[in-house]
Specification:
Low-confidence stretches: none
Strand content: under 5%
Shape: globular
Order of helices and strands: HHHHHHHHHHH
Helix content: over 70%
Largest sheet: none
Length: 180
């Protein structure tokens, strides 16, 4: 539980750092709102995703490498310097940890690095090799995640058969009604 509390504190702190570092927000107000927004998360969500130990490391902890990945890429674009091998390795590891956790994080990782690759292209009129390597790491990580035998077995079970055969729009419609 101590590790989960430390990771949760790190997530709130990283969110605070992103807002303070990349905007003109007042640090004390940002810290207050970070704590308030954490408190606005429903108790049921906390029970199933924050305080349930295995779910925490599956659904919550991967936020840290995702935020760090975005911050490091953004800072690299702003500096405009050539990527060092050490920083590229760091980004590669963060990408794998982000994209290999859940399908949602895989899509979010692709989205974040894609947007930042576009930003890099707009600023420098090229997309460097490390963005392509990050994309490859995302595809391999997400592919391993999606093609794992347990997920395929759950998708093929009688309980999930009807949902699996729905179209993408039907799946979204069915899930959105349950979420809203």
């Amino acid at each position: 539980r101590l590790l989960a509390a430390l990771i949760l504190t790190a997530i709130v702190f990283l969110c605070y750092r992103v807002v303070v570092k990349y905007t003109n927000a007042h640090p004390i107000l940002t810290a207050g709102f970070s704590c308030i927004f954490f408190g606005l998360i429903g108790v049921g969500i906390h029970r199933q995703g924050t305080y349930w130990f295995s779910a925490f490391f599956y659904y919550t902890a991967p936020i840290i490498p995702l935020i760090l990945l975005g911050m490091i890429l953004w800072d690299h674009i702003e500096e405009g310097k050539k990527m060092s091998a050490g920083k590229a390795a760091e980004l590669f590891i963060l990408t794998v940890f982000s994209a290999f956790s859940t399908e949602q994080f895989a899509v979010t990782t692709v989205f974040i690095t894609g947007i930042l690759a576009v930003r890099y292209f707009l600023k420098f009129n090229k997309i460097p090799l490390f963005f392509w390597l990050l994309g490859l790491a995302e595809v391999v990580s997400a592919g391993l995640l999606i093609l794992n035998p347990g997920l395929l077995q759950r998708a093929g079970s009688e309980q999930n058969a009807a949902f699996v055969h729905l179209s993408l729009l039907s799946k979204l419609n069915r899930n959105m009604r349950g979420l809203l």
